[in-house]
Design brief:
Strand content: 5-15%
Distance between the termini: 32 Å
Strand order of the largest sheet: 1-2-4-3
Shape: globular
Number of helices: 7
Amino acid sequence: MELKTVIEKRRSIRVFKDEKIDECILMDAIKYGIKAPSAHNRQPWVAKIVSDEEKNRIAEALYNKTKDISEHTGPHTANIIKEVPNLIVVFIDNQNKKNRDHDILSIGAFIENIILYLTDLDLGSLWIANTDNIKDEIKEILNTSLECVSCIGIGKKNQDPHERPRKSIEEIMI
């Protein structure tokens, strides 16, 4: 696909077929993530493809942490995490805390590259932000000292959602 087509076709997928994606494809997606720009070329991202057991424990932790919070989307996201065939956890290598804002922006570019690559393969992905509610739990589950920034759910799409409303160019220009 042309890049502009990939950008236009990208959707947040929340319903997946029950089929694992080949790990080679996941590794290629991460390799394309690494090509993202980063502030001062720090490349502050660290990624882990998690096992089913780890994925389910992350889902359970998110559900338990958010289930009693009125109108929180955490329980819904926890169900998606449980159902998605593949999950990549993205961490920040935050040894240099003074550049945290730059590093978070860089990690966003890393994630976007991954998602666009997967879209080009006609695979579904979901950029998951609700995992920020369970950073400590993820450290424990994955036995790491790294801080989770976000997760990416990946699989074969089992839905074809329409484009969600976007602000117009006039609304965002000053």
